[in-house]
Amino acid sequence: MNGISVIGSVNIDIIMSSPKLPATGETVKADKYYLYPGGKGANQAVSVARTGVKPRFIGKLGNDYFAEIITNYLKKENMELSLNYGAQTGIAMINVESSGKNMITVYPGSNSNLSYNDFKNIEIKNSIVMFQQEIPLKTIKDFMSNNSENGNTIITDPSPFYEDKYILENSDILTPNETEAQLLAGCEINSIEDAEKASVKICSKYKNNVIIKLGSKGSLSNYNGHITYFKPYKVKSVDTTGAGDCFNGAFASEFLRTENIDKSIEFANIAAALSTTGYGAFPSFPYRNHVISIMENE
Ligand code: RIB
């Protein structure tokens, strides 16, 4: 494999931090407020870049003020940008409470207009291709059906959750979180043993490989039929927004370098944990040296 392409969403994240999340009908006072770029696609691309590989990022922004802010941020990262512009930039309203739990409402805006036509002229061959599900599923399927002979390794994050059989079966590695894994497998996950069973169900249902992101409980992979559990790297979390995206980007960049699944997951676990120690999604994503220094001392 010779590179990484991330095809996905890009948003402006409006983040409010308060002692507790509001209940329905309740107003709570925020003690901090941030405006940062986000979106699962852009987050994954930044995580790839910070962990040492220059990815291509393909996404769609609006023709507005938020697009300008985001473009300026993205240009500072080591990425090849293929950005399209039209309509309104996607917006995510993110409430975070002091325990680190969050609630997110997303207005997709121009993300929902990103079509395969917007990037079909870009040749993507023998690459890792990363998808999430904040762009039209048709766009993902069109890419898959038009590039099936191109030797790509497709990593799909089924988030937000839609169970699209074609997408799931045409992905080489699925990276659900615990909730998504329960939905894919059709069983509850209350323990690591349950996660193992769920991974077997997912791999046999979609004939591929899976990495289940278990958050503060670590992660579990079922790759080429081998199941491995990875313990978490313990940190004091303040905001878990984008931790799963950070995991995917760090995993892909280490996997491109090493093709070693276990080492890449250990690397991603640490990167994702570090990302929860600061506010926002990619502003808190770590750089490769930071992750490596921790791995060497573990
Ligand atoms: O996964 C976190 C991301 O989800 C946020 O950055 C927000 O934009 C939403 O898309």
Short précis:
The protein has 298 residues and is of the alpha/beta class. The protein has helices spanning 40-50, 65-75, 137-146, 165-169, 178-185, 192-206, 243-258, 261-275, 288-297; strands at 4-7, 11-18, 32-38, 56-61, 80-85, 90-97, 102-107, 128-131, 153-156, 173-174, 209-213, 219-223, 226-230.
Characterize the structure shown.
- The chain is of the alpha/beta class and 298 residues long.
- It has one domain (4-8, 40-84, 112-297): UDP-N-acetylmuramoyl-L-alanine:D-glutamate ligase.
- It is 34% helix and 23% strand.
- It contains 9 helices and 13 strands.
- The chain has helices spanning 40-50, 65-75, 137-146, 165-169, 178-185, 192-206, 243-258, 261-275, 288-297, and strands spanning 4-7, 11-18, 32-38, 56-61, 80-85, 90-97, 102-107, 128-131, 153-156, 173-174, 209-213, 219-223, 226-230.
- The strands form 2 sheets. The chain has a 9-stranded mixed sheet, sandwiched between helices.
- The longest helix is centred in the last third of the chain and has 16 residues, at 243-258.
- The two termini are 29 Å apart.
- The mean pLDDT is 96.
- Bound molecules: alpha-D-ribofuranose.
- Residues 9, 11, 13, 38-40, 43, 92, 104, 106, 134, 241-242, 245, 281 line the site of alpha-D-ribofuranose (RIB).
